[in-house]
Batch of 4 targets.
Target 1
Amino acid sequence: MLDRRRFLQVVGAGSAALALAACEGGAPGSSGAGEEGGQGASEDAQPVAVRTSALKGPTAMGLVRFMSESEAGNLADNDYTFQIVASPDEVTPLIAKGEVDIAAVPANLASVLYNKTEGGVRTIAINTLGVLYVCELGDTVHTVADLRGKTIYASGKGSTPEYGLAYILEKNGLAVGEDVTIEWKSEHAECVAALAAAQEGAVAMLPQPFVTTAQAKNDQIRVALDLTKEWDAVQTGDERSSMVTGVAIVRSAFADEHPAAVDAFLAHYAESVDFVNDHVAEAAELVGSYDIVPASVAEKAIPECNIVCMTGEDMRERLSGYLAVLAEQNPEAVGGSLPGDDFYYGA
């Protein structure tokens, strides 16, 4: 019999400003796993060891209630352990070696892992929608059209922030290099420094919770555009894609062997996400206690981090559309090809 005591292993360090990393309070679908999560578990089910890894940043924020309840021994269905790591590069080998069962990762990395492992992982939930914002020192940008003629300082060239920004600009009739100049920096802090030193009219693209951290140091920084909302605004017809930062994935072998444990995990996850969005101050204290970001930063950032728990068909439609946008701009961003239908758990 497994030791029923719960424990939490927190490892790694690094910046809390992951561009992924990956939440508007009470966002639609935030409790979407509730029905699905209750299907598999039964009173007679034996506890299963469920090893989970999450990234420092918004993807881990949604888990804090789940982690604290598990650590306190309040969850009796399975034996949950968690580790928080600083970089997606730390998660990939853990999945490949079967050392974790469920992981919160960047959305495009989930597709890359699916292709590399030949279907060895599935996505069980979207856990973070977009966390990217256009900020400025001033009050000149109120629509995407207002970016015409401006320089945008940004980091993340060759990755999803670049592709997401380009998509939104293109859908609004702006061409990168012609109508808008993007000056790429290696770090978010460099973007803020460049913004502060720039001439009037410059803006920066920054992720949460780094936006909140930057505003704490310079209260003149204004959020001009929420790129998640701008993404939604350019959807037409039957399109339901969303800007997606993070997802939760499961090893396919684990899902096949323990479907009830996966469903139970999703139920706890959905409850945790609802708690984080509905009880921000208390959740922020938990975020700080797990050294994800300071509690003071978390309390201001959580409502802007688009933390959700979207599952099933809603997850599939939004995520598949997002991955299709990335693949159109650079197929390697999703691992060379779009994942098959089996990638979407429960859809």
Target 2
Amino acid sequence: MFEVTDDTFEQDVLQADTPVVLDFWAPWCGPCKAVEPILEQLESETRGRVEFAKLNIDENPLTAARYDVLSIPTAILFDGGEAKATLIGARPRSHYERALAEVLPAA
């Protein structure tokens, strides 16, 4: 997972050639830590077809505000420069898999 900032969001996420799952998080957020291993597993399983990134909302409030992220963890799936799915809160792996299935061709 790579870090995204307010300054790099446009290029790293909106202009990406592949779908990007952007995890909005903060270091003090316990549920964010619970979601991270799930996203890392999915990243290794979808390598090359989906990118996974993190945005620290404390250091990058503009992007969080732009997408009305009021609760963390929030993961937004971007594809073609658009937000396609939003998952708010710590969710089971199956929720993330369902969101990814919407943009990934069957493997």
Target 3
Amino acid sequence: MGKRTGLAGMRRDLRKSGKESVFKAYCEEMSRSGITLFRPGDLKKYFRENCAALGAAGYNRFVSDAVESGILQRRTFHVLYAGKTYYTSGYFELKSDFEKMLELAAAVYENGYFSHFTAVYLNGLSEQIPKVVCINTEQKKSGYYNNPEAARKALTDEKIALAFAKDKRQSGFCAEEFDYRLLRVSGKNTKNSGVFKRKLGEFEFRVTDPERTLIDVTVTPEYAGGIYSVLKAYQTAAEWEADPVLSVDKLVRYLKRIAYIYPYHQAVGFLLDCAGIDRKITDGFRAEFEIRHDFYLVHGSAMNRDKRNLVYSGRWKIYAPRLLFEQYQELFG
């Protein structure tokens, strides 16, 4: 996640200073790179590389001196019911609580990336700062996904209806700090499709791009505030239609690369229509995929077992909540 660099070119000059000024300079250098929270492993690596300049008797003494002098603060964060110790520099306190939670998540799940409603906000698809920080750590590729085409061929309308009549199982919160919750999503293996690096201030992290974000929140709207919030994100993205920021071609590429078993392309296409994307563009999107099965926009027994709660789009062969989509009558029939 966040980049963690050593002092490299600074070492020669720093060795002329006392150990406190050496480590203080290191913290200042890290803060300029956006890093103000350190795992014990980060500090051990730094100590090994700079022990001569630090002049400390050992690693434990070095950390104790740094805490006693106020350069570092020792913190215990409770992640998955276990307390984990991290160290923060004074610059950590200058960040907003949201930035602090992002940095904590990046330290806890170094190989993860921010997704769902967190990515909706970070990509400018919503102005609402999320109270839940979502970080995705992809699963290893399993045998179930080795032949997605065969799995798709085994799908029937009845199997889809049964699956979507059930409430979707959700991940549990793994931490709560700074009045924010941290939610770890163990997502499908996508080989990090649509994941890129960006910055908030000077803090560098990984996050899904707008197209991948729209796909994620369509698949699991529960992690984005529900289908109402998802539609708003699509509508905001539709305002970029004439701008290369949003690419429908990229949506097609990601969907084909990720190769979902269920036909989520029907839900994505339906939401693009609802958001007001030009019909010629969504016609082109539709032509890229098979539209074989009836599908559902949301999970839930209360919704999908009673068809009176739903409206049906023949164009996308999808059932959608009646109360939400009555305003889009031209899409149904």
Target 4
Amino acid sequence: MANVKQSLKVTALATKIALFFTLILFSACGGNTQQLAQVVDKQRDLVDIVASGKLVAVSDFNSTSYFVYKGEPMGYQYDLLRDFASYLGVKLELIAENDIDKAQAMLERGEVDLIANHLTITAARRKQYCFTKPIGQTRQMLIQRQGAVDDAGHVSSTLELAGRIVYVQQSSASEMRLRHIAEEIGEDIKIVELPDMDAEQLMELVASGEIDYAVCDENVAKVKGETLPNIDYSVPVSFMQNLAWAVRHTSPALLARINEWLDGYLPTAHHRNIRHRYFESPTQRRNMNSDYFYVTDGRVSQWDEYFKQSGQKIDWDWRLIAAIAYQESRFRVNAVSPRGASGLMQLMPATAGYFGLADDASPRLQIDAGVRYLRLLERKFAHVPAKERKKFVLASYNAGYGHVLDAVKLAQKYGRNPNVWDDNVEYFIAHKSEYANDPVVRHGSLRGVETRRYVVEIMERYQHYCNIVAL
């Protein structure tokens, strides 16, 4: 570990030296050094990621890359990113974006550290960013209907695309490939790029008859095609192409570390199992037809309407309440914990009794009681800034208000901010057992590591729900 840290320090020094001379040269050419410095500040590399403790990535959300199933975030890209972040020893922050141009702009502006899509490696894209080692291969396939298009309209080779209207995702490799085909056959192909439309949505448009032809990756076509029986994806429009992640040209250390990780990771049985789960397993195909499979503008659970109704009463985002319910009960109405907590919101008997909740209460009443308890706790932290308050409430919901109050007093006593959760009050919750005999502690010892993890996991799940499910 010491060697790794030393290596990162050397890399950081080399980067600063390089940027120093870049600034000098830029100034000599009459450039605006202040503007360049502002851009440079946003170009994080590995040393900055490790120092911040957070890897920020953008990925597309679809049936294989990133989705929510029964309340839990899943997906091939999500699993790989989670494993890579763990390898670095940092947290993962994932942003969902299906528009390739927008994802690329995020990378250029320094809002994300990498694009974790199945990006086709092309010469044009190499000018924009650096690709990692390939994480897979695919080819572009023509999407058309089986039997829905008459014999004259059915395409069996790329030569027959002349004069036809073909729809593609905006700025995709499919668009570039079709332009090359038009040049190769010497005929015009009417290419329509659709913004904010991913390959799976294009396939659905073809299946419904709204459009006749589209082009997308074979990997996507095979998985999505299982749910669209009238789709034909048998005609290739390209040779096999490598797929990879992308980073900025100004992140060479991050690129090297990703490649180093991929060398050891891709050949493992663990990775093979992940790939099989999302691209080959019959279970995944069944999941896609489930009412609990949520990709875009879907649902989190069968209780969403109750979460929305109750959330409005206390001005909370219903997706955060859903994240709490998942953490507590996995959305099971009859769940009972070893400690006696019960129901969707896992209220203890005394708390349930306080809110008049009967043992056989309906899901709506269970959620309503849980939300009323959240409101009661929130009022106790009215003095805490709004952006911090919900973490205090979540911790109290898990451990009890008294334990969180003790942690607040410990933070005050030992020079930390009593109104900030992360690394302040959170620290004393996690270490509360060590301070059990401190005079300011009135509510005894606590395995506070569990409470800290509880808050982190709910906030992370809430972010996934925000990524994928509309408000």
